[in-house]
Amino acid sequence: MAEARALAEDVFGGSFESVSHYVDILASRGVDWGLLGPREGDRLWERHILNSVALTSMIPTGSTVVDVGSGAGLPGVPLAILRPDLTVVLLEPLLRRANFLSLAVEELHLGDRVRVVRARAEDHAGGYDVVTCRAVAPLDRLVEWCTGLVRPGGDLLALKGSSAEDEVVAARSALRRRGLSAAVRTVRAHSAAEPTYVIRVR
Ligand SMILES: C[S@@+](CC[C@H](N)C(=O)[O-])C[C@H]1O[C@@H](n2cnc3c(N)ncnc32)[C@H](O)[C@@H]1O
Predict the structure, then answer these.
(1) Residue among 136, 149, 156, 159 whose CB has most ligand 1 atoms within 8 A, to mutate
(2) I want to staple 156 with a disulfide (CB 3.0 to 4.6 A). Which of 16, 76, 118, 131 is the partner?
(3) Centre of ligand 1 from the C-alpha of residue 160, in Å
């Protein structure tokens, strides 16, 4: 954990204090409210913070981003902290989670460019440059829910585990029906961090 925290210090630079504050919120209220398991407390930096920002290089400067199924704010909140150029909507249908997100956004002073919307992806209006999501649904379902959220020429970026290639194969007909293509990229938040996988659909 100490090592992942040190890597995060490198990655976040001047925004490290803000992301540390978010980690404190996750480790306290996030666990108390049942949004994270009690054992996640020790793994926040590596499993959640570094993992979330690993896709930053795939998001163009100044993008509007919707983080679908944001839960406790992952990856949307760490991305918003790291990237002051982004405007971010945290989309989350469950009341308890949406309330948690609203409090966190307020405490982290992100309210000028981060908004919480309580809705399901299928019911939300689109036009975003980028859709992000992590641990929400298999790719074929994400494609169904999320392609209406992306503006023409924008990207759906799904953070996945090592089964990413298999998900692309399983989603082949859903992608073909919509004239979309998907590719897996291996990314890291820091050269010394664990790799993670992102499926880019466009
Ligand atoms: C396993 S949690 C992952 C949360 C967070 N992205 C993370 O990585 O920790 C999945 C989240 O997706 C949300 N969700 C489920 N169905 C959804 C839908 N149709 N549209 C938007 N969010 C949805 C759930 O409410 C839940 O908060």
Answers:
(1) 136
(2) 131
(3) 14
Q: Ligand 1 in contact with 120 (CB < 6 A)?
A: yes
For ligand 1, atom 1, which residue shows the shortest CA distance? Answer: 135
- Closest by Cα among 81, 71, 133 to 110: 81
Query: To which CATH superfamily is domain 2-201 assigned?
Result: Vaccinia Virus protein VP39 (3.40.50.150)
Q: Which residues, including other chains, have CB under 8 Å from residue 79's CB and lie 6 or more apart? A: 52, 53, 55, 56, 59, 65, 67, 86, 88, 132
User: For 35-90, how does the pLDDT look when each residue is reduced to its tens digit (9 = 90+)?
Assistant: 998 888 789 999 999 999 999 999 999 999 999 999 999 999 999 999 999 999 99
- The pLDDT tens digits for 134-176 are 999 999 999 999 989 999 999 999 999 999 999 999 999 999 9
Ranges of each domain in the chain: 2-201
